[in-house]
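Technical note accompanying the year-one report. For the benefit of new consortium partners, we illustrate the data format agreed upon in the data management plan: each record pairs a sequence with a structure-token string. No post-processing was applied to the example shown here.
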Amino acid sequence: MEVRAELRRRAVISSSILPLELKSMLWRRLDQGEVSAREYGQAQAALSVDRQDWLLLDVGPDLLRRAEEMAERLHVRSLDAIHLASAVLLAADWPDRLPFLTADLRQARAAEAVGLAVLRFG
């Protein structure tokens, strides 16, 4: 699955940490030589445009408490727990089964464990 095409096809609703994580991932890939400076610049430009249409949930005390519980129960990393807690909170009010998009196998397994419909890429 091509990630950018999938994100364009669906509404993007995520935790407010998503842009930070994406930028960090792009920087790591540039630093490790996995992408060229030109590709990095293109990806940064696309991110700047695409994120204008995203709904990003604030990371507040209630969400962090839920994320702490998930980190302990599911044995996931802190940022993964924040994304999972955000998705679970949204899923409670979502009319259909909320899709959870990830490339991380551990995060995918944790999302499935809390009842989210996982779409894997990468």
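Partners are asked to follow this layout when depositing records. The longest helix spans residues 18-31.
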